[in-house]
Amino acid sequence: MKYTFEDTLWNAFGMETYSYLKDNVRLLLDGTNEQIREYKKKFVAFYRVRRNKEKWIDPFFEIFKEAIIDKKRTFNKYLKKIKKKCKHNNKEQTELSFTSKMLHTIDPNKFPILDSRVLSSLGIKNDNDAYMNLCSKIDNELLKNKKFKDLMKKIRDEVFEKLNESVTNYKLVDIILYSNPDID
Known about the structure:
Elements: H1 5-12, H2 15-23, H3 27-30, H4 33-46, H5 53-69, H6 75-85, E1 87-88, E2 91-92, H7 96-106, H8 116-122, H9 130-140, H10 146-160, H11 169-179
Antiparallel strand pairs: 1-2
Helix pairs in contact: 5-6, 6-7
């Protein structure tokens, strides 16, 4: 079996599962029971959801289905819905990370992924303003920084283009920051 640099990176970042999740998100609405179960299983494993099925995961996927249909979805709107309906240890929790992952899966060009490791690498406090600060930092600094843009282009050209795959700017930022927490 021949392994390439590109294939190794593709697999290391779980891009096959990531692509499946974003490309098949409508299965939650239109799929068979088996397809829906498989989609949920992959999402839970990929994003490492460690929550109670009845009190958190089931309500989360009901909200997820609502968000797929909603053409005016916003981060704050779904953050509030998840906080209200998804209980972890019988308590409401502000689920910044899972809200961003859900919305990114639905619309990867509009919603970046908020992750504590990414926040840390950007020096952003994990508080109620974290998502707004993350979006601002990405849009107003990283995507305008020549060195960072050059790195993105190199990765896009040398990995994703060779695999004939596309990746959004937000996912590429996530990959770079997650794998290089001390990036300047």
